[in-house]
Structure formats: structure tokens, C-alpha cells
Amino acid sequence: MTNALIGIVLLAIGGSGAHGAAPAAHPAVLIPEGIDLGERAPDSTTPSRLWLCNTADTPLDVVDVKGSCGCTAVVFEPAALPPNTALEIPFDIRAPKAHGRHKTVKITVTMKDHPPRQFEIRLSTTADDLVPEADVIADPRVADLGPVRAGNLLSASVHLVNLGHVTRQVTATRAACECTTFPDFSPFALPPGEEADVHLELEVPATTAGRVTKDITVVVAGQPPVKVPLRMLVIHPRVEAVLQRLAERYPDTYVYDEFRIDDDVVTAVAWTPDRSRPAARVTCRFDEEGRIERLHLDKITPHRRAREAA
User: In this structure, is the dihedral angle defined by the CA atoms of residues 39, 43, 45 and 51, taken in order, positive or negative?
Assistant: First the structure.
């Protein structure tokens, strides 16, 4: 069996201030918006949970919660969710049986009179060093870009090495979002022992902050696609300003994540110190000069199911 290695080399090359379109208003907010479980043992089961928060002034009828495949078991019963309360939704997810696989599963929450919301779960299985999962593998299998500035443009190269005994056809590249492009790629043959670089450019999201993962895929004929998750910690100056103000106002009271930037408004989720549940929604508005104009927290009350309240 042949092997090829893919190396990731990254370089920050300037910035871009483009803003994405503001999301449509929806009374239901998923906390977190998604989760990356990292590497898991093949065929192992991982327990986790999400929270559904009702931000409206009227009750929200949650009628169904389902996973996109049989590998996900959700614990749920229909509920009428009062305003400013959060419903805990536990679930178990089973990893693929094979080594070196990447998997994305979606949990869909259905509500009466409102569009459904989806929660994305990502995980991968550990590699088997003795039995490669495919002729072409990625090294590293997951690329950690570290801290990057929001809106910056990253230049990267995927280094391909054919360590096998036959010529391999590199036929295509794909990205999970429009923020990643392969400006000079065209299909090519990679003879045994030869090397080649595939270049890409990635625009760091300008409307989010915190831990973000974006996938790229290299297609090699005759085997499953090779997915390489690009993980980064997105730093945004307005988020840094909000965190400083929160630390001054609520020292050691909350921990924060799920930051979103929408023009002059930054939102986030405040968790209890042990991260057992979301405690509040953070909203911060900036003035035209980029200074904090108003910062407030809307407390979130855990929803008690009927059998728990009895």
C-alpha cells in the first residue's frame, strides 16, 4: 500500500475588513452553535449536550430534535419553553469504526411556527500508525493555525509527496466555505517519489471570534477524499474590548464564548464558572468611533421539565 504525506505551511499576508450578511432574526438560539469534539477512539461513544435558548417574549414550542444519522442518540421530550429560558438537550454520538476518519453530524431542532435550527457536531477518529487509512494521508491530519486576526487573509500550501510505487492523480480540491479558494490549482499527475504544493488562500471570518474550524479536501483518484481541518483561534479587537469591560464589571463571575460581530454589535454567551450551563446572553454596542456605548447581560433561566418540577 502506498502512502503520501500532506504538509501544511501557513503565512499571514495582510487583512481584509469584509463583513458577512447579518443573520435573520430567530427566537431560538443554540448554545453553542456547534461543537468540535476533536479526535476520538474508533467506535467510541461520547456524551455531550447543547442548549436551546428562547430569546422571544412569548413561549416557544419545541416539538422535535433529531440527529442526521443513527450514530447520534438524543434525549428529548417536547417542551413549551418560556421566554429567556434555556432547554438542555443531552446527546450521545458514536465515532466511526475505522481509523483516521472525519465526521460531521447535524442535530435538527424543530419548533412550531418557526424554521428549524441545526447544530453541527464534528469529530475525527485517531489514526492507526500501522495501517494507514488510505494511500494518501494528511500530515498533520489536523492543521492548527493558532491565533489569527479576524478579517486577515492567510496563504497556505498543501505539500503532497507520493511515497508509493505508482503515479497518483490529484484531481480536485474543495473547501467547506467560500472563504477558502485555490487560486492556481489544476489537476495533475504525481509520479512516485515526486512532490508538489497545492496553494490556497483563506479569509479569516470577520464576523466571529473564538475557536473556528474550516475544512479543505484534496481529491486523489482511487481512494476516499482527504479532509484536512484547519483550526484557528480568531482574535477580534472589539471582542478584546468587550472581554476587558466584562472582567471589570463581573470579575470571576462568568466565562465567555460564542462571540459574534454584526456591524457595531457584539454578542456572546456568558457561562457559569464551571461551564455547566449558559447563564446570560451578552450584548455590547459600539459607537461610531469604536468605543463601547452600552453593555448589558440578559440572564438565562434553566428550563425545568414537567417531571423535574413535579
Answer: positive
Asked if residue 156 lies in contact with residue 10, where contact means CB atoms within 8 angstroms, the answer is yes
288 CB contacts (<8 Å, ≥6 apart)?
264
Q: Distance between CA 117 and CA 121 in Å, rounded?
A: 13
Distances (CA, A) of 90 to 21, 47, 87: 31, 7, 10
> What is the rounded CA–CA span in Å between residue 128 and residue 21?
42
The helix/strand count (H/E) of the chain reads as 2, 23
3-state secondary structure of 56: coil
With contact defined as beta carbons under 8 Å apart, do 243 and 249 qualify?
no
**pLDDT averaged over consecutive 10-residue blocks of the chain (310 residues)?**
46 41 68 88 93 92 93 92 92 89 91 93 75 66 84 84 80 92 92 82 87 88 81 90 94 90 91 92 94 94 63
- At 242, give phi and psi (nearest 5°): -65, -45
Give per-residue burial for 249-282: e unless 16+ CB within 10 Å, then b.
eeeeebebebbbbeeeebebbbbeeeeeebbbbb
Q: Which residues, other chains included, contact 167 with Cβ-Cβ below 8 Å and sequence gap of 6+? A: 189, 190, 191, 192
Strand, coil or helix: what is 242?
helix
Q: Is residue 303 within 8 Å of residue 79, measured between CB atoms?
A: yes
The answer to whether the beta carbons of residues 286 and 293 sit under 8 Å apart is yes
Condensed to tens digits (0 to 9), the pLDDT of residues 18-59 reads 444 444 468 889 998 888 888 898 999 999 999 999 988 899
Phi/psi for 62 (5° steps) reads: -95, 115
